Amino acid sequence: MKKPEILAPAGDFTSLQAALDAGADAVYFGLDAFNMRARASANFRREDLPEIAARCRARGVKRYLALNTIVYEDELDAVDELVRIAKPHVDAFIVSDWGVIARCRKHGVKFHCSTQMSTSNSAAVEFLAAQGAERVVLARECTLDEVARIVAAVPGTEIECFVHGAQCVAESGRCFMSHEAFGASACRGECHQPCRRAFLVKAVDFFTDDAGKPIHESDTAFTVTPHTVLSAKDLCSLPFVDKLMSAGIASFKIEGRARNPEYVKTVTAAYRRAVDAVAAGAFSPALAEELTASVKTVFHREFSCGLYFGRPGKNQFTDVQNSSATQVKRHVGVVLDYFLKAGVAQVQIQDASVKTGDVVQIHGPTTGVQECTIVSLRRDDAVLETAERGNWATFPAPRCRVGDKVFLIERR
To answer: Mind listing the domains of the chain with CATH numbers?
Structure first.
């Protein structure tokens, strides 16, 4: 069985390094415009392109640039310039606008059709392939059976599917709620996510009751329970990753360019292990359970199997508003120095104190995400049990760099 590509998100260099260290086969990212995370800080600068390419090439990892928003008439020249600038540094562009496709064809660059195009049948895939698409990301509404049938019907075109991460109530993402409520279009990467919020229902056409007594709007208002009636659960495919591989999907896409680096590393590593286990004939329910528990430690809104086994139902929506992660991180401080021969980090304690036995993570643009247990704490010749805020301490740690951030990891 051919292994699918594991495609990880990268919102900054720390996440990029985390994805590389976790075994990603490819990464996707955005620049300063025309991508579906335009209002998030999860984007690179154009001048970052050479370094992104260098890091990925050193690992044999492909790079895909997201250019998947709708584009307006007066923006075509800007898109043309962005494609020209990025062309030497990326393997393909992820697109959803026909004008962007036209620019990709003009510059002779490969492109993948985004899930934003809502491609849900083989005829549509064949049409897009005829326009030059190397790969098509299927609509999230497709069931697993439909995915397998599409793959079989279009053997010459790669099929990519989302396997993990946030899901939109509009599924393939063409939603107008944010545009209507805030004037910020989800189709332009500006979504304010009103679907994730609590809702208050109130009557606005009642003025008097049957006895003629005035009724005000506040008298009829109530909060919808559960309040997350439009907030979809996150997708987690680890329990059935073997079935996805059997369907012949070419690329497993992990959602999360706006999520934190430990999410990227943990989730990418879990799917790396799962895919390798299936290929080796070693995948089992026990391993799936272990890997699912690992991804529950990082940000998520409860898990579901998405629509792979059926159309939407009430079980697709979460009952919680915030993260259900089983672990949380607290900022400790920053790395002041790293003594390479001794394998020891010197850390300025700025916030949370740490003690021997604590688990910490060190995050940095070059370091990525490194985790270790504090086996000893020292300050000069003094052996410490605890390092408090306002002081510095040293402890054995994986290689890291000056300025890296240190976090305490705690179970909920």
So the answer is: 5-170+232-316 (3.20.20.70), 177-223 (no CATH), 327-411 (2.40.30.10)
